[in-house]
Amino acid sequence: MSEIIVAGSINMDIVNHVDQFALPGQTIQGKLTEFFPGGKGANQAVAAAKSGASVRMIGAVGRDPFGEELISSLRQAGVSTDQVVKKEGASGMAFITVNAQGENEIILSQGANGKLTASDIPDLSAYSHVHAVLLQNEIPWPVTRHVILEARRHRIPVIFNPAPAMPVSDDDLALIDTLVLNETEAECIAGESAEPPEKAARFFIGRGVREVLLTLGERGCFYANRDGDEIAVSAYPVQAVDTTAAGDTFIGAFAAARAEGMPVREGLRFASAAAALSVIRRGAQASIPAKAEILRFMNEAGR
C-alpha cells in the first residue's frame, strides 16, 4: 500500500460555542467549551488514514498534559506516530469560537509546532512506496521548505495546502505538484481576486504548479492541471454545525483517494462527501468520517 507522509501541526483545539461572535471590547456568554485534538497537519493525517490510506505523521507536541492525548488521538485513527517528537513547554493550541451558523474564528498558539526544526525531519528515502508528502503552513516555513526540497530530491510528489495564508514565492510554487487552497488563500498568494476559479487556477499553473485544487465552500471545488484538464464538482448540501476541519478533511480524503488510484473526478466527489459529513459534527478530528461512512453517504445521495 502507498503511504502518505504528513509533516505539519498538532494542536489541542479549545472550542467555545456562542450565538454570535463578540465585537471588539464586548464580553459575551459562551454556551459550551470543548477540547478536541486538532491542528491542520494532524487533521489531514487523520482524514487520510480514516479514508483508507497508510499515513505517517511528522510533527511535535509539548511535554504537557495535552501531548500524550494528541499522540493517542493520531494512533487511534491509525496514523503512525514514530516521527512525532516531544519538545519542552506547551503543545500547540487553537482557540476556536463557533457561532450558531457553524462559522468559526480561530487564534493559533504555535507551542511545540514552532519548535520543530529541519533536524527533526527523517530521511525520506527510508520510506518506500510513498505516494505523496502532505504539507501546510502551521510549522515554521524553513522546515516546510526543507521537506519540500527533500521530497523533490527523492522524487516524491508534494501536496501543499498554504493555510494559514501567507505569500509564497514563484520559485517555491514551482516546487509544488498539487496545490490545494481556498479562495482567501489564493487571493493572498496571487495578490488578486480568485474569481473566477478558472483564472486563479491558471495563475498558479503558470507559475509551475502541476495541478491546482480550489475549494469553494458551499459552491464545491474546482480542479485544473497543466495538461488543460478542468473539473468542477458541486458540494453536497448539508446543514453545517461546525466547519472547523472541513478543509482538512477534504484534503486528507482527496490525498487518500488519489493514493488508492481513484480518478480525479471520483476523488473530488469522495473528498466533498467527507467534508460534508465533517461539518454536521462538532470538533476537528472528532468530526472526520471513516471511509465506509463516506461511501454510504455518497450512495444515499446518489452521487
TrEMBL record:
UniProt keyword terms in alphabetical order: ATP-binding, Carbohydrate metabolism, Cytoplasm, Kinase, Magnesium, Metal-binding, Nucleotide-binding, Potassium, Transferase
Residues binding K(+), per UniProt: 242, 244, 278, 281, 283, 287
Enzyme class name: transferase
Compartments, as annotated in UniProt: Cytoplasm
A molecular-function term among this protein's GO annotations: ribokinase activity
Activity-regulation annotation: Activated by a monovalent cation that binds near, but not in, the active site. The most likely occupant of the site in vivo is potassium. Ion binding induces a conformational change that may alter substrate affinity.
Domain named Carbohydrate kinase PfkB: residues: 1-290
Binding site for substrate: 11-13, 39-43, 138, 248
Binding-site positions, ATP: 182, 215-220, 247-248
Active site feature: 248
EC number(s) from the headed UniProt entry: 2.7.1.15
Reactions catalysed: D-ribose + ATP = D-ribose 5-phosphate + ADP + H(+)
CDD domains found in the cross-reference section: ribokinase
A Pfam family this chain is assigned to: PfkB
UniProt pathway: Carbohydrate metabolism; D-ribose degradation; D-ribose 5-phosphate from beta-D-ribopyranose: step 2/2
Cofactor note: Requires a divalent cation, most likely magnesium in vivo, as an electrophilic catalyst to aid phosphoryl group transfer. It is the chelate of the metal and the nucleotide that is the actual substrate.
Required co-factors: Mg(2+)
Recorded family membership: Belongs to the carbohydrate kinase pfkB family.
Record's function text: Catalyzes the phosphorylation of ribose at O-5 in a reaction requiring ATP and magnesium. The resulting D-ribose-5-phosphate can then be used either for sythesis of nucleotides, histidine, and tryptophan, or as a component of the pentose phosphate pathway.
Complex formation: Homodimer.
Record PANTHER family: RIBOKINASE (PTHR10584:SF166), SUGAR KINASE (PTHR10584)
NCBIfam families: D_ribokin_bact
Protein name: Ribokinase
Naturally occurring in which organism (per UniProt): Paenibacillus thermoaerophilus
